[in-house]
Every structure is written in structure tokens, then in C-alpha cells.
Amino acid sequence: MRQIVERSLAALMGAETYSDVHYVITNTGIALGYDYFGYQYWPGGEEYGDRNFAGVVQCNYPEAWMSRYVEQGFYDIDPVRLFGLTHEGVTEWRLLGGRDMSQEHFMREAAQYGLDHGVVGSFQDSEGGRLQMAFAGPAHQGEPALALEVMPILGPPMTVCFRKASRLESRIRWLTERQRDSFYLLRDAVRRERYADLW
Predict the structure, then answer these.
(1) CA–CA distance from 14 to each of 19, 80, 165, 182 (Å)?
(2) Other beta carbons within 10 Å of 199
(3) How confident is the model at residue 192, as a pLDDT?
(4) Facing residues of 41 across strands?
(5) Of all residues in the chain, what percent are helix, strand and coil, respectively (each to 5)?
(6) Can you give the pLDDT at residue 186?
(7) Homologous superfamily (CATH) for 2-195
(8) How far apart are CA 101 and CA 80, in angstroms?
(9) What pLDDT band is residue 71 in, cutting at 50, 70 and 90?
(10) How far is CA 127 from CA 3, 100, 103, 105, 163, in A?
(11) pTM for the predicted model, two decimal places
């Protein structure tokens, strides 16, 4: 656990952009033994959970599952997502209580796409922003006990980093496309050099 936390915190110390935090979340999931991750960050300013929010959503869930999710309108019944809207903290998917029949069916269907089990965490920053992240995989994959220890440590600093990235994004919007590309190229070169020894 210590190594995962130390590497992630070291990477977060230099995180300035959404892609920097994405890198940390991806590598944390790998270190915890999970194939899949998903996260959403709301910077605040609109109703938390609004479908039209101005935040960040990323996942690497199977494409077929994501298509099914959208087609079936699972957004409003997904118990993992709903946990993040109403709770703060970390839990295993199997412990999400209060599920009705449609949610039980949803979880069984997700398992058919390799999302048998996972962990979810929800963290709020001091300015009303919220990060929800999940790690998942097939049965017997990943280390949920370790994830339940690591996520509460890494969630709050990740939320702060997303807030910082949100501010940076709002500052560079006025740059031309070429200036933004130059900024990102420079930033990525520095980041690759800085992170080369961490993972």
C-alpha cells in the first residue's frame, strides 16, 4: 500500500492538468489490480449530477457496455453513480444498499461485460467540487481491501488537483489553438521526464 500511495502522491504533487490527474488515476487502478476505471469531476456551480455539467468524465469500460448503458438510459439507475451523488467515502459495489430490482438487473448485466465487482469513492472539495471514481473488473480481479485503504488517502488530493486543473483550463481558453498545442507539448515533455521514474 505504501508504495502505491507514495507514487501517486508524488505524481499528484506536480499535477496541473486533467491529463496529469488522469495519469495518476489510471496507474492507481493498475496498481490495485483492476482493468477498468471511471471517474467524474464536477467543479461546482451547477447542480451536482446534472447531465449537462461542465466537468470531466472519463472511463475505459468496455465499449459494448458503454453503448448499452447509453441506449438503455442506465444513467438514472446506476447504483455506483448514485452512491457518488448521495454519499461521501468509499465502498465496494457489493455493499451498495437499497437497490431495487432494476438496479439488481443492471449490476447483473454489467457483470456480463466484465464489470463483476469494484469499488467506488466520492470526495468533495472545499469549494463544492466533487470527484467520484470507481475501479472495477471481472470476478476475483483487483484488491478491494487495498483499494478501500488507498482511495480515502488519494481521493482528497486528487479532488484538489482537479480543482487546480479546472482553473488552468479556464485560463488557457483564450489562447489560440496553436498556442494551446505548444503549451500542451511542452507540458507533456516535462511531465514525461518527471514521471519516468515513478511508475
Answers:
(1) 12, 30, 11, 19
(2) 14
(3) 63
(4) 56, 131
(5) 55, 15, 30
(6) 73
(7) Transcription factor LuxR-like, autoinducer-binding domain (3.30.450.80)
(8) 15
(9) very high
(10) 30, 33, 32, 36, 9
(11) 0.81
